[in-house]
Amino acid sequence: MKVKNILVSQTKPTVPHSPFFELEKSQKIKIDFEPFIHVMPVTVKEVRLQKIDLTMFTAIILTSRYAVDHYFRVCDKMRYKVPDSMKYFCQSEVVALYLQNHVVYRKRKIYVGLRKFEDLCPLIKKHDTERFLLPTTDKLKAEVPILLNELDINWREAVFYRTVISDLSHLADVSYDILVFFSPTGIESLLHNYPDFKQNNTRIAAFGAITKKTCEDNGLKVDISAPSKKFPSMTMALEDYIKKANKK
Question: Is the whole model's pTM more than 0.85, yes or no?
Fold first, then answer.
């Protein structure tokens, strides 16, 4: 079946040259964006109940842009001035570049992984005398604490924000040829909003092995998956699929 429209379960990109916009234009299809999950801040009181003393940490592990924003939000609310000597360990270049919204980049000690959390671990291990803080969501991936514990380092997890399922009731009468998911929580949101969801002819694209497995565990067929050696990005995998589907 041909592909005419796609729903991406994320907020619409703010950059003008997003690969999704290029895909929409080159393949002459319509792409809509709808966040299936959203983030809610944790209060300072809730942070204090976790017995987190910000002054005790010499390094921060940042896994997402949300983590960056909420770490500095909490610091501001608690009137803690982050020292210039703080070391930042960012899971990807995207997270590291986003850090510039809060610090003077060239004056900070910033260490950057390739993309996956496991890629960052060797860098963290090289600085095993630091005291690490991991500001995170209540939906932290199970692999992260396992990997950090294996490093035998001094680290603490702190929930600074929550991942909440969005209300998608306004999409009840809308159908799409492809649904694109980037996290297991996105699948959870879909099935929470539509417990009787039937895939039928809807194709599903899943980014990451865990997202793909969550789809399959819930009886959903994954037609498009990324990343892979051939398609390191979701838009590349989508483009290849659409070209083949729309050629018929």
Answer: no
